[in-house]
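Hey,

The postdoc asked me to send both predictions to you directly instead of through the lab channel. I've kept everything plain text so nothing gets mangled by the mail client. Protein one:
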Amino acid sequence: MGHLTLITGGARSGKSTFGEKLAMDAGGKVAYIATAVAFDDGMKDRIKHHRERRPAEWTTIERYRDFDKLPEDPGFLDADTVLLDCLTVLITNQMMDTGMDFDTVPAETVWDIEADIARDIMTALDLMADKRVIIVANEVGLGLVPAYRMGSFFRDIAGRINQRVAERADDFYFCVSGVPMKVK
């Protein structure tokens, strides 16, 4: 009954715009899960532009963690389509919430953090199993090797979680310069 679509690509590759188009084309009620936190002026501006682009009738759910509480969010249960934008920002926010010093944290602790994040995301996918789900995520493995330890941990966690979501996805797109290419 449900259908999962994953959209990845680099920064400003058209992922969100394509995800929004898929959600609009699907028809029915749409719930948009916004995972960003407005921590600086640049992010505030990005959030503002995303809000302005979304149709007014879509329900916006601001959530990047605790997906077991998703059914309590207004508009979630009656949504036909759920668009989660962005998985990579969700991962960043959850990593930052740990308060860990990633320059000194033991690797075993990072594995535990990744397991917690993955569990939360898989809970979300399970709760949305009867809906059309569109997930936007950055492809972080095509760039330079991060020069700092947290960047390496982040890239590895995001890459492995993207793989897990892609494995469950019915459709998988890779966006380049605004052009979505169907991978799966």
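Protein two:
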Amino acid sequence: MTIADPSDSPDAPLDQFRADNVYLGADHARNERRTWIVAGICAATLAAQVAGGVLFHSMALTAAGLHMGAHVAALAVSAFAYAYARRHADDPRFAFGAGKVGYLAGFANAVVLGVTALAIASESLHRLIAPEAVDFGSALPLAVAGLAVTLVCVWLLQPASRDRHDHDQDGDLNIAAAHLHLTADALVGVLTIAGLIAGRRLGWTWADPIMGLIGAGLVAQFAWRLLRRACPALLDVNPSPELTRQVRTRLECGGERVADLHLWRLGPGHHAAMALIVASDPQSPQVYRARLADLAGLSHVILEVRRAV
């Protein structure tokens, strides 16, 4: 966090900011690399399943491949967001950098999860009302294989500890969204396998669509969690009341009054603050700089100091 050289006048604005204007997450490179790897694994699985469906005239294999295509699309969005944010990190067209591109990708993946939940619920209800014959023997191995691939991808996309914060939404939402997308599919895969086993061994043909409905509910819940994290960042909702309180307390510790204060997110682990300070005896800009210098996550600050009249 650096300070621009201010005017000697106490009434002049004081701008505090990162010189490079880059507000990417601390694990941006790691997360981007892993997202591309997992996207490649899913794309290879997609190609193998579709090819197998064509060669062996298997609709089940073809359907599994098309389902994997949804993962490829979601991961491609996440990976592209990382690449775009990195390439435009210091692009002057972005007033506060490209650190929030990942939140936009997280929002997109939340929408995809929501649509997926509706599709699963619709098909499951249809199967309950109009049951169809299920080849449990052929479907079960495919479900197990799909779950195995998904679990490997979930492990590869495990977010770093700093990206798991949910209380203040301070982690990398892009990697969290991709991880949550695959986690939801893994849970649905477990439910699918349970339903297929129940149908094959106990003759409970209704178990498969019931498990589908439960899975749809889980996916919808995950989509809602992502929306609750992405929307506030995209709409510049105050991301941390605690950090806001600390900024206000430190700026007013000498008897000054903070007449106006705004805090918003710039990217994973980066916040911006803008404050108007009114004082009967304004201090030098260096004094205010020292008060805020050690606040973690405060990357861009604009302070305007006015003499009380």
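Summary for protein two, as requested: The helical segments are 28-56, 59-87, 101-129, 136-156, 173-202, 207-234, 241-251, 285-292.

Thanks,
C.
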